[in-house]
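note to self — DONT lose this again. spent like an hour looking for the file last time. sequence + predicted structure for the chain T wanted, 283 res
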Amino acid sequence: MEFLKDEFVLFSLILFMVSVVMLVVFLVSYNKIRMMIEKHEAKKKEEIEKSKKNIDTGKESFVQEIEKEYMTRLEKLQGEYGDKMLKTSTLVLKIKNITSTLNSQLIIKEIQDILKSNLPVTKAIIFLKKKDSDSLLVAGGIGVNIDENLVERQLEDYPVVAHSFVTKKLTHIDDTHGDRVFARQLDNARQKIIYSVPFLAIAEGELMPVGSIAIEKLSNAATSLSGEDISLLSMLASIIGNAIYNASDLESSKKFSEEQLRKRKNSLKCSLNMFPRRSSRNL
């Protein structure tokens, strides 16, 4: 099992498992819709046949009402499941975009779209953890104004986020209240965070937090998410975390390469200046 220690292999396995799960969900939803439509169409056909047989007995109007009712239900059913299929296929596409790019800005944009389209979240901040420090960088969000005054924050100002970094799992404010250390910090917290979804990345053989979705407000004044929404967010935590970690590694490499190139240019310039310039008169 030595190959499982390779970060790329683990990330590829996670991505493969997520793709399989999403494909299964899509196929199950599609089969359910198809079966329900076939069932309703069969009932509709049966009622039409009955109406033809009972025209002379005065039941025609009754059958027509039944047929109309079935048609209404069928249209409603197609609409509901059609929306679910559309959301599922859109979510799969967004996850694919996240895992196939090394552009951190594009990753943040896709996270914001998922929050808006697939979850009952109306206000949230997307944090990225500054490397080798307890600072949080505000990378984006929904329902909040992101300005230059909010670019960097201290982790201790957001106890729910800090608690999720320690536990390395999705954290509700009630979970934080149950911890003596973080419960004290909640009273002095600047902003009320309901949920924190930590972005977890595999680095140097261990799982480490590289950012978080800090959810401040849910739709319809709710204070908790459904089990389905929590499962989705928990699944996204590792996918987003590894994508952000890889993107930040690339950006760090680019900065390092640019710095090295600049140093080489300066070194070459200094070396050239050491040689005296030949005068045209000596030629």
